[in-house]
Amino acid sequence: MTSKMFVDILLAIVGAALVIIGADKLTDGSVALARRFHIPELVIGLTIVAFGTSLPEFIVSLMASIHHSSALSIGNIVGSNLFNTLMIVGCSAMVCPIVVSKSTVSKDIPLTVLASIVFPALAMDAFFSQSSGGDVLSRGDGIVLLGFFAIFMAYTFSLTKGDKVTPTNEAVAGPSMPVWQIALYLVLGLAGLVIGGKLFVNGASGIARSLGVSEAVIGLTLVAGGTSLPELATSVIAARKGQSAMAIGNVVGSNLFNVFWILGCCSCITPLPVVGIAWTDFALLLFSSLLFWIFARTSLRVVRWEGFLLVACYVAYISYLISQV
Fold first, then answer.
1. Nearest to 169 by CA among 37, 23, 296
2. Across the chain, how many H-helices and E-strands are there?
3. How far is 210 from 316, CA to CA, in rounded Å?
4. pTM, whole model, 2 decimals?
5. Would you write out the chain's pLDDT as a tens digit for each of its 325 residues?
6. pLDDT (0 to 100) of residue 164
7. Whole-angstrom distance, CA of residue 205 vs CA of residue 253
8. Can you tell me whether residue 67 is helix, strand or coil?
9. Fewer CB within 10 Å: N-end or C-end of the chain?
10. What is the predicted pLDDT for the residue at 126?
C-alpha cells in the first residue's frame, strides 16, 4: 500500500466518523427546534436537515462544474438520489419500520417522482440531439429547476400554517433544550456533516482514481455515497429514535434540493454537458422513486422486508456499474 492510499483511507475513516457524530447532533438539535417552536418535524426535515445534509453534494457538484467535470457533478446528483431513495430509506426501514403520513404519500413523495421526471426531460436534448453543444443542461434549464425549487419551498412553508402539533411531536415530548444548546447542536452537527463528507469524498475519490475508475462511475458510486453519508446517518439515527417524519423528510427534501437547487445553481453558473450518464441511470432514478411511493402507499409505512428489497436494488445497480467498468 502506497503512502497516498494510506492517507486516502485515513481521510475516509475520519470523514465517516465526523458524519455519524454530526448527524446525531443535528438530529437532536432539529427535533428540539421543532418542539420549541411547534413546527412539524416534517418541515424541519424538508428544510434545515435536508439543506444541511445536502451541502456536501452542493460543494462537490459546484466545484466539479467550475472545473468542467460535469460527469462528476451530474453523476453525483443522480447517484446521491439513488442512494437516498434505495439505500437510506431501505436501511432506515430495516432498522425500524418507517411510518409515513397520508400527506407525505399524497404530496411530498410525488414531488420526488416529479423531480425524477423533470431532470431527464430537461436533459433529453442530450440524448436526442447529435449536434455539437446539444448535450447540455443550459442556463435556461437551470432557471426552470430553480423555479421548481421556489415552488417546493413555498409549499413546504405553507405546511406551518396548518396544524403545528403532530403525533410525532407529541410522542417525543420531553424536557425542552435551551436555545443556546439547540444552536450549538445545529452548528456542530452541520459542521461535522460538511467537513466529514468532504474528507470522505476526498479519500474515497483518491482511492478510486488510483484504480483508474472513470469520473462518471466515481460520481455515481463513491462520491454519491460519500456525499450521501449525512443523509444516511441522519435518517437511520432518526428512525432508531422513532422520528419517522424526520427520516422521510430528510430523504425527500435532500432529493429535491439535489435536483432543483444544486443542479439549478450549477447549470446557471456554467452549462453542464450531460456525459457519462446512461438512460439506465435515469430510468432507475424514476423507478426507485415510484417503488418508494408504492411501498409508502400500501400501508402508510415502509416495513423491513420492503427496506431489504430497496437495498437489494441498490446493490444490484452498483454491481451492474462495476461489471461495466
1. 37
2. 18, 4
3. 24
4. 0.76
5. 678 888 888 888 888 788 778 877 877 887 788 778 777 766 776 677 667 767 777 877 877 787 777 777 888 899 999 999 999 999 989 988 888 888 888 888 999 999 999 998 887 764 555 444 456 888 899 999 999 999 988 887 776 665 444 444 443 444 578 888 988 988 998 888 778 877 877 787 777 777 777 667 777 887 788 777 777 887 888 888 877 777 787 788 889 989 999 999 999 988 888 877 888 899 999 999 999 999 999 888 899 999 999 999 999 999 888 887 6
6. 45
7. 26
8. coil
9. N
10. 47
d(CA 21, CA 196): 9
3-state secondary structure of 97: coil
Can you read off the three cell numbers belonging to residue 263? 443542479
In 3D space, the residue among 249, 242, 255, 188 whose CA is nearest the CA of residue 41 turns out to be 249
SS3 content of the chain, % helix, strand, coil (to 5): 80, 0, 15
Contact 16, 200 (CB under 8 A): yes
State the burial class of residue 158 (Cβ atoms within 10 Å of its Cβ: 0-12, 13-18, 19+): exposed
Cβ atoms 253, 235 nearer than 8 A: no
Identify whether the C-beta of residue 249 lies closer than 8 Å to the C-beta of residue 36: no
- Geometric angle at alpha carbon 219, from 319 and 27, rounded to 5°: 95
* Pairwise CA distance, residues 85 & 287, whole Å: 10
Residue 22 cell numbers, joined = 454530526
Q: Please name which of 41, 24, 72, 109 lies closest in space to residue 213, comparing C-alpha atoms.
A: 72
Nearest residue to 155 (alpha-carbon basis) of 115, 107, 121: 107
Q: Report DSSP letters for 71-92, one per residue.
A: HHHHHHHHHHHHIIIIIIHHHH
How many other CB atoms are there within 10 angstroms of residue 279's CB atom? Answer: 9
Q: In what helix (H) or strand (E) does residue 302 lie, and over which residues does it extend?
A: strand 301-302
Distance of CA 84 to the CA centre of its chain: 5
Q: What would the DSSP string read from start to end of 20-65?
A: HHHHHHHHHHHHHHHHHTT--HHHHIIIIIHHHHHHHHHHHHHHHH
Instruction: List all residues 6 or more positions away from 81 whose beta carbon is below 8 Å from its beta carbon.
Output: 112, 115, 116, 255, 258, 259, 285, 288
